[in-house]
Specification:
Chain lengths: ~325, ~325
DNA sequence: CAATTTTCATAACGTAAAGGCATATAAGCT
DNA sequence: AGCTTATATGCCTTTACGTTATGAAAATTG
């Protein structure tokens, strides 16, 4: 004797509202519909649920027992509905975000922290990769959004990209570095310091080479390579080494006195930091919300940087 | 965003069974049906429930959360089904039984105790009344079954009656009464004892009068009247009073040494103890079960009485 | 106690969807 | 690559839900 769960809901609604009409209203149905459903259910199970021809509708003992179960169904249904609603509103779900290590660690992780403070029920699955891999993962739907520096002209087919910040790089060092804080520098002054190189498969490694070539340095001493942002800042802090890092990463870490930028203008690649995603895969609400969040966070970051530069507290 | 509870059940079944086919089987539905229901649900809420085109069907986070609620629905549904099944089988429910006080207290209450030991989830609503009232209550559906002495010829229209036991009365006294245990008695011997009369509105009161008239006693001393069976047995135990009681009541109480019957044959009314019910009101399963139970109990009682009489341990 | 109101039951009709079978399609295994 | 197995789809039938209109019975009110 299988019972339709909806019927249990109806029973409990009628019992709790104390009447067929009110019960129907609470369920958002018409009174005749509920009446008929009850009649059919009674016929099916072969038992009265309400005493016949009694005006304050009198539930049977069986009916009262079923109403108890109906309340459980109704409660489960309500939480399910709220789960779905939160999901649709983009307040719960998963976002699989990938990005280049230094950006993710230096810039995006702070934004993700903010995001999760606002939307604690959205789980972030973060991974590290470089542009080519990220594109592949986006296309194979293994990733919802990628955040990386990108030449908009080299954008793969089937992917969209929205720029967030200039891809400008700077020469970074410890704030306690002998050269830090000097108002201006000549290239010859940086020639003799050791260099920290990003992982060789990183685009930043190519940037480092081209930067140094651009300022006439074809030969340079690499004292360390391959670490993440955290190891690099730690090593920079305890040495006189220099490195090339994205401008925004250095900017974000200025507060913690972890990094300083040298006032040397270097040529930077034709790239922008931005979000990349696949328009073929229609994004989940949580992903949409995440992308919007990142957009506004970067919008804020841009104005902060602009003010900083106007205050001349931050020199190139 | 209202969710159909049945869909929650389906989701949990698929998740728990680890596949669409197995889930469908567990639900007793065909695989295509379940597949399409899931597809429609996904379309309606605008979210994937299972990763598309993955062979070990991979539930979404949202799906897993909904499956939790689905399990609650399924559980509630199962207990509801079992409630209904028990009700249909007559293993739960209510039986409203009415009867004449002495029979109920002396005979039926023991049977009800047995019944409730076998069917603890059937609630018995017992009430006391005499035949006329019982008939009325049966006809107004306020009672499911009545147990009372009845002249089958005087049975009201629309009611059925099935006899259980002869309506024979006996003269009862305390087992310690001076007359108790004597093999035979003359009427003159009982003339001088005081009498306990049943309530004046009771049929038994009329019986008492006619019995005494039948043995030539027109004048008798009533020392007590109006009590229930319990008070009467208590008073009998502590006095030399006599009374008239149904045979079966005295028989049932013989074990507790509460009553004895005098070996005087008295004329008894044209009545049988039996069950009365309304064939118009189709009985609930619990009521049917109760009636059947009473039938077999009385069947047993009849054979017990018969054996007793054959053993001559019980004399008239 | 008759009139009125309220509440439930029924009727008739249209529609959504669930159910089944047959079958196509795609994923994973050998 | 081919086979097996699991899921998706197409097509059709049936059930039951939804609506509005209306009838009937119980409770309330004057």
């Amino acid at each position: 004797m299988k019972i339709d769960s909806r019927h249990l809901e109806i029973i409990s609604a009628i019992v709790d509202q104390g009447g067929l009409t009110e019960g129907a209203e609470a369920l958002g149905k018409s009174q005749p519909s509920v009446s008929r459903t009850v009649a059919m259910l009674e016929a099916r199970i072969g038992a009265r649920l309400f005493e016949k021809n009694r005006r304050p509708l009198q539930p049977t003992d069986l009916c009262l027992a079923l109403a108890v179960e109906g309340r459980k169904v109704l409660a489960a249904n309500q939480t399910a509905s709220s789960l779905v609603r939160r999901y649709i509103d983009g307040k719960s779900g998963v976002v699989r975000v990938g990005g280049t290590p230094f950006f993710m660690d230096g810039v995006i992780s702070n934004m993700i922290a903010e995001f999760q403070r606002a939307f604690p029920d959205i789980r972030i699955e973060q991974s590290y990769a470089y542009a080519a891999d990220l594109s592949r993962q986006l296309e194979s739907k293994a990733l919802d959004v990628a955040i990386c520096p990108m030449d908009p002209n080299a954008l793969p087919e089937n992917l969209k990209f929205s720029a967030l910040l200039d891809g400008r790089n700077v020469i970074a060092c410890s704030p306690t570095h002998p050269l830090a804080g000097k108002p201006s520098l000549r290239l010859s002054e940086i020639a003799n310091y050791p260099w920290i190189a990003p992982p060789v498969d990183s685009p930043l490694y190519q940037d480092l080479r081209s930067v140094l070539a651009g300022i006439g340095m074809t030969d340079f001493k690499v004292s360390f390579s391959g670490g993440s942002l955290a190891s690099i800042t730690n090593i920079l802090a305890r040495s006189d080494a220099l490195t090339v890092l994205p401008y925004s990463v250095v900017f974000m870490l200025r507060r913690q006195q972890a990094l300083a930028a040298l006032p040397i203008r270097i040529n930077h690649p034709q790239r922008s930091l931005g979000q990349m995603w696949s328009p073929l895969q229609n994004a989940r609400p949580s992903v949409k919300r995440f992308r919007r969040f990142i957009d506004t966070e970067f919008s804020n970051l841009r104005t902060t940087i602009m003010k900083h530069e106007q205050n001349a507290l931050w020199r190139r």
